Amino acid sequence: MLSAMPGRARPTIAVILIPIAVSFILAACGGGGGGDNSEDAVRRDVEAMFDSVFGDDVDVREFARYFPEECEPSIAELSLGLAFVSAFLEDTAIEFEVTDVELLGDDRALVTMTTSGIEFFGSPTEGGDSEELMVLQDGRWRSTSDCEDFDGERGELGLSTTTDDDGTDFSTDFSFGEDDFGPPRPAALGEPLAIGDLVVTVTGAHRSEEAVDDFGEAPEGIYVVVEFTLANDGSAPTGPWSALQFGLFDERDRTWDHEGLPFEDVGPGFSREYEVAWDVPVDATGFRVVVGPDPFAGLELAEGFAPYEVALAVD
Asked: With 90 as the cut, is the pLDDT of residue 221 above it?
């Protein structure tokens, strides 16, 4: 049994999804040591994984090493996930235990885990059991959670997959279209954009070969970085990660996942400058950014609200 002590940064990524996020993090990768295909090695690696994110020394880069090679994670996204869950877990010890290991050949294992002691907003939960398919790669047992290459095997075991029954991708991303609010309305650089009690002002954009934070990596193509300010006219602290959604499109209507919205809050009556980045092909041009509310933020929007679409002059 392992316990995570209070006061540590803890983990991808809306309040309604917190239990799912915790389960994902607990199952998201194998840990240190190990390397053989015994039950003891599986237990050791999974427990080491848990300790790498809930133990005394949180190491996101080490945590990222234990995903399957088919699904290498973004350090920025993992870091955001750690910060996200940390914001909603109360000061409490989280207990984790591998309760069963079933070897499925030389390089597969079905692991049953249980968690307890998790507390959300002052209400303790029992956590409960979860199962995860682990794969042995390069001497480490790694989780197949959220890895499309293992969907077939996971489906046969009755585990969650990355696609729905009709083959469409699962996604918690907010889409900016007629199904949500109606078509986005054009807005200009420097124009204040009212989104409930928040005011977003897109101030500029530029290309960059470097990440916008310490956790990012070099882009596959090149980063398009959008600069904006957020003014909080509400009554409680909030930030881009919890209240807003951003989408970047080019002249061919292509879009990409951003590298994670900033986590830092801005207090009521204040404003703050932020940046958000997308890794795009080097030949992409004609960018525009669409800004709207996070669907889980509970912002009180004006009647007839529509997201804003801002044409960008990218340096």
From this structure: yes
Q: What is the pLDDT of residues 150-180, one digit of tens each?
A: 988 988 888 887 764 444 333 333 454 444 5
Biggest CA–CA distance in the chain, Å, is 61
Q: Map tokens 């650089």 to a residue.
A: 189
**What is the C-alpha separation between 127 and 40, in angstroms, rounded?**
24
Mean pLDDT of the chain: 77
Distance CA 89, CA 92 (A): 8
HEC assignment per residue over the chain: CEEECCCCCCCCCCHHHHHHHHHHHHHCCCCCCCCCCCHHHHHHHHHHHHHHHHCCCCCHHHHHCCCCHHHCCCHHHHHHHHHHHHHHECCCCEEEEEEEEEECCCCEEEEEEEEECCEECCEECCCEEEEEEEEEECCEEEECCCCHHHHHHHHHCCCCCCECCCCCECCCCCCCCCCCCCCCEEECCCCEEEECCEEEEEEEEEEECCCCCCCCCCCCCEEEEEEEEEEECCCCCECHHHHEEEEEECCCCCECCECCCCCCCECCCCEEEEEEEEEECCCCCCCEEEEEECCCCCCCCCCCCCCEEEECCCC
> Which residues have CB under 8 Å from 152's CB, separation 6+?
none
- Domains of the chain, with CATH numbers? 2-156 (3.10.450), 185-311 (2.60.40.1240)
Write the pLDDT tens digit of every residue in 12-35.
Answer: 333 333 343 444 444 443 344 445
Token reading at 241? 């990660």
